[in-house]
Write a structure and sequence with these properties.
The structure holds two protein chains of two kinds.
Chain A (H helix, E strand, L loop, with lengths): L10 E8 L9 E8 L4 E5 L6 H8 L7 E6 L2 E2 L5 H6 L1 E5 L10 H5 L1 H5 L4 H14 L16 H13 L5 E5 L7 H18 L2 E6 L2 H7 L2 E6 L3 E6 L1 H6 L4 H7 L3 H4 L16 E2 L5 H10 L5 E4 L5 E5 L15 E2 L4 E2 L4 H11 L3 E5 L5 E6 H9 L2 H11 L4
Parallel strand pairs in A: 3-8, 3-9, 6-7, 7-8, 11-12, 15-16
Antiparallel strand pairs in A: 1-2, 1-4, 4-5, 9-10, 12-13, 13-14, 16-17
Helix pairs in contact in A: 5-6
Chain B lengths: L1 H12 L6 H5 L5 H7 L4 H31 L4 H13 L2 H12 L3 H25 L3 H9 L4 H31 L12 H4 L8 H29 L1 H4 L5
Helix pairs in contact in B: 4-7, 4-9, 5-7, 6-7, 7-9, 8-9, 9-11
The chains are: A alpha/beta, B mainly alpha.
């Protein structure tokens, strides 16, 4: 994707109200906020707060009672709803892939509706499958042959097919197991860093809202706006008791979701390659922050932790006593990194980049120091200014 | 009419070379079949026309009704009741009810058989349409398919296995039921089962009956194959 082809439009809610016929109370009342182009805005709130209704009024799968929604300055009320929807990406929790169409055909649905020729559709499908990291051979398979996570990736690809300026995502990862959900979230953030779409994202999960959102709209029952803020502001200065309650008592811990592992000062461990003389490594271990040496290969990829016994000989052995696991992805948030450490019961874990190369070592101490430090809030704020890149 | 049948009867018992088998009316006389297979050609073709028209007619009408009932849910119950009544009327009574209007002949038989089919096909099409997962139609609508695009590109293809299943039941039933067309003077294999007043010649009954059974099996097989071709995604679900 080149900078020229990136397209995103701001989305503006103007006093939007939705009253379902026959209902006593309004679903959404007088809701106004603006999402700048290229940002992820998460709508979050307890069930019945009208977040999905608010989202669905953008593509008119629910018609608003009064008010207006503008995409790039143009009212969604103008023109034919089906045509409007083709210009807005739409991902739902149940995915809703067409079971009778292959993955390529599913991704090519909207291009086909818009009358693209076959070669162009096929090329676009292939491009998107690469973008979501799906092997091209999956193109001829049917949705039922894919895992839930793969299906959800295809759902995202289908929504991106005609490069829409706005995407609506209704609890897109809600039905995925926690491990895959976290992976899909990271993938989507990586994708978004490249695509820079305007995304409206609905979830009931505050943690997901804080992780995914550049901005967060907190809604109260009846579709009242409780707070519209960046995740940091939400955690540091909740607007009222409702937001404070909703965000939860573990606000301090949630702040860990604002920082990426690569953004904190990691520790360094003495490094050694198989066949190196042991003596200098032993000396380095005695003086290092991390009291163990890491065995790495020629590409600087961690192979294992070297114990005292490993280093007792003349040379560093090729197969150390303990493996390097768990490895932590430098792109994951600090909270997930801490969880990985706690789950494995280790004090230290190597942090690796996307290619598996060592970038440092994360320890529980780094995390607790971070939470205790005064600069935590400052670095969070600066991170919030340039989110997810 | 009577003379014609008498002539048929005559040819039945004379001019045959199978010896005692026919005189004794044994269960099955292969020699007679070898000599007489040609007499089954026309009834078989007539039978094919009866079944083909009744199933095709039934499908077209039931499909139209099902689409209407899918758009306008309140029509579902009256349509189901209406086709249900037509389904329950015994075909023979139907022939006599139709006699004053359409007279004796294959048209009467086809109308009665079509009416019989409607319920089975209608029920299957509506079930198929109803079983389309709501999240699929919701997504289809959300990404910009119009109502008729959702119907033709999503709902009907997904209902295809049920639609074909309905056609299979209807076809097999109609092959059997069409043997009664003879009572409306509608031709078909029934003419070789009921020859005039004579329904005692066992070999004739067995041959005509077997042709009907084979026809039913062939139709069923063909439709099964068509169903698999139209729903390739169903076959591949197990592979992963």
């Amino acid at each position: 994707m080149t900078a020229e082809s990136v397209s995103a439009s701001p989305v503006r809610f103007e006093s939007v109200t939705k009253r379902y016929p026959g209902a006593d109370s309004v679903a959404v009342e007088d809701l106004s906020f603006e999402v700048p182009a290229g940002e992820i805005c998460v709508l979050v709130g307890p069930s019945g707060c009208g977040k999905t209704t608010a989202l669905r009024m953008v593509n008119r799968t629910v018609e608003m009672t009064s008010g207006d929604i503008l995409i790039g300055g143009r009212s969604v009320k103008e023109g034919d709803p089906a045509r409007l929807r083709r210009e807005i990406g739409y991902v739902i929790q149940q995915i809703g892939l067409f079971p009778h169409r292959t993955i390529s055909q599913n991704i090519g649905t909207v291009p086909a509706l818009l009358g693209w020729d076959k070669e162009r559709i096929a090329a676009r499908s292939a491009e998107l499958m690469e973008l979501i990291g799906l092997d091209p051979e999956y193109g001829d398979r049917y949705p039922a042959q894919l895992s839930g996570g793969q299906q959800q990736r295809v759902g995202v690809a289908r929504a991106l097919a005609v490069d829409p300026p706005v995407m609506l995502m209704d609890e897109p990862f809600g039905a995925i197991d926690p491990i895959n959900r976290s992976r899909l979230q990271n993938e989507f953030l990586r994708l978004q860093a490249e695509l820079r779409k305007t995304v409206l994202f609905v979830t009931h999960d505050v943690d997901e809202a804080i992780k995914m959102g550049d901005r967060v709209v907190v809604l109260k029952k009846g579709g009242h706006l409780a707070q519209y803020a960046t995740p940091t502001e939400l955690l540091m200065e909740p607007a009222d008791d409702f937001v404070e309650d909703f965000v939860g008592a573990d606000r301090a811990l949630k702040r860990l979701a604002l920082m990426r592992v690569r953004d904190v000062d990691l520790w360094t461990a003495p490094l050694a390659q198989a066949g190196d003389p042991s003596e200098p490594v032993r000396t380095a271990v005695a003086a290092a922050e991390v009291p163990y040496a890491l065995l790495v290969d020629g590409e600087n990829r961690p192979q294992g932790w070297l114990s005292e016994r490993d280093l007792a000989g003349e040379q560093v052995p090729a197969t150390p006593d303990s493996s390097a696991d768990p490895l932590i992805d430098a792109d994951s948030v600090l909270r997930d990194g801490l969880a990985t450490l706690l789950q494995s019961g280790s004090l230290y874990a190597p942090v690796v980049d996307a290619r598996g190369r060592l970038t440092g070592v994360l320890s529980v101490e780094i995390v607790s120091d971070f939470l205790a430090s005064d600069e935590a809030s400052e670095s969070e704020l600066s991170a919030a200014e340039r989110p997810h890149d | 009419m009577i003379e014609q049948l008498a002539a048929v009867d005559q040819s039945f018992f004379t001019d045959r070379s199978s010896g005692n088998c026919i005189q004794d009316n044994k269960l099955f006389c292969p020699g007679w079949v070898v000599d007489n297979y040609d007499r089954y050609v026309d009834p078989t073709l007539q039978h094919l026309v009866l079944v083909g028209s009744a199933v095709a007619g039934g499908f077209l009408i039931a499909f139209g009704l099902a689409i209407l009932a899918h758009r306008h849910r309140f029509l579902q119950t009256p349509f189901l009741a209406g086709t249900g009544i037509l389904y329950t009327i015994p075909s023979i009574s139907f022939f006599f009810l139709l006699l004053p209007i359409t007279g004796r002949g294959s048209l009467t038989a086809i109308i009665a058989l079509t009416a019989f089919n409607l319920q089975i096909i209608f029920r299957n099409i509506t079930t198929g349409l109803r079983n389309v997962p709501p999240n699929v139609t919701e997504a289809a609508r959300g990404i910009g398919l119009t109502r008729s695009q959702i119907l033709w590109q999503v709902e009907i293809p997904l209902a295809m296995p049920e639609i074909i299943a309905g056609l299979r039941i209807a076809t097999v039933s109609t092959v059997a039921l069409a043997t009664l067309a003879v009572f409306a003077n509608g031709g078909g294999l029934g003419t070789e089962i009921v020859t005039g007043s004579n329904i005692t010649f066992k070999t004739g009954i067995i041959v005509a009956g077997s042709i009907a059974v084979i026809m039913a099996i062939v139709f069923d097989g063909v439709l099964l194959l068509v169903g698999k071709l139209l729903a390739p995604w169903k076959r591949k679900q197990a592979i992963s």
